[in-house]
Design a protein that fits this description.
globular, TIM Barrel, 13 helices, signal, eight-stranded parallel beta sheet, alpha/beta, hydrolase, binds SN-glycerol-3-phosphate, binds calcium ion
Length: 375
Amino acid sequence: MRRTVPTGGLAGALVTAAVAGPTVAAPAESTESIEEGTSARASDRPIVIAHRGASGYRPEHTLESYRLAIRMGTDFIEPDLVTTRDGVLVARHENEISGTTDVAAHPEFAGRRTTKTIDGVSVTGWFTEDFTLAELKTLRAEERLPQVRVTNTAYDGRFEVPTLQEIIDLARAEGQARGRTIGIYPETKHPSYFASIGLPLEKPLVAVLQENGLTRKSSPVVVQSFETANLRELSRLIDVRLIQLLDAAGRPYDFTAAGDARTYQDLASPAGLKWIARYADGIGPNKNLVVPRDAAGNLLAPTDLVRDAHRAGLVVHAWTFRVENQFLPADFRIGADPNARGDITSEYELFFRLGLDGVFADQPDTAVAARAGLA
Ligand code: G3P
Ligand code: CA
């Protein structure tokens, strides 16, 4: 596979060659939507993964955020998964929900506010595992970044916390209506923690995927995690594609719990990538592992991570692409307002030219548009 992208500017200066890599598996063009047996069409174009839905435009992890992303042309929608007290998987980035719901305004749940240690960090608030699904459904989503994405607050108080099943149903219905497959790209959040309290995520995840006939390598499903043990377990239970997430610092929490000294940087080495390839199909790196920045936010030379991952047979889906200046490298900011939109197209072009196989995007329309510029 060899891609070309528009060159020029910093992207052209930083990148010296397109990178050959393993075939990218994207959802197939199909009228079958998310049905089992839909072939995952081989493609040489990077996939677009709607990060928490179209979270740049709607409160994250709501059906309306996912629906908008689908209408913008995304290939996959991404739910982060946690569980309720009665074992139902729901979409939230954290199990502590005061930052993305109106739980604090519900006096009937005031007594549920508590402090817990999650992955070694003390957290105070309200936790999904202390609510039944019926109770959680009485809450409404709120914008996580109200100061940054002011217009999104117009939707506060309107949308429920969705279940994984509701998200699958949405993908299926929207895909059928549009004659194309919409994939789901769930992430298990805090798997060691949830296992430690007797609410493991893997069993209900496998059950939901099995009930929906989504357990094959060709299924339009990709499961991701920052931890490793649960992915290795899932690799023995089902055949869906698996992605090992890699952060720019630290180590998987299951390594911490097990006394394994390896870090994410170790896993991003050629030897680490070879180990990951034993159980996963790709990596999902923090984009700073692909193109680092200096302390002022200026881009530095790209690393060899994409090339090394491809040599190990792994695809590379990096995160997170966001249009606002404060999230962009200094090179691509426009003006001084940290909340204004910058030149994200140039950022996509840089990463596409490096051979990236997919991007997690808060504004999936921008990724779809940038991809359309590929030769
Ligand atoms: O899953 C890819 C990316 O979403 C990881 O970051 O913290 O947004 O889940 P986070
Ligand atoms: Ca995620």
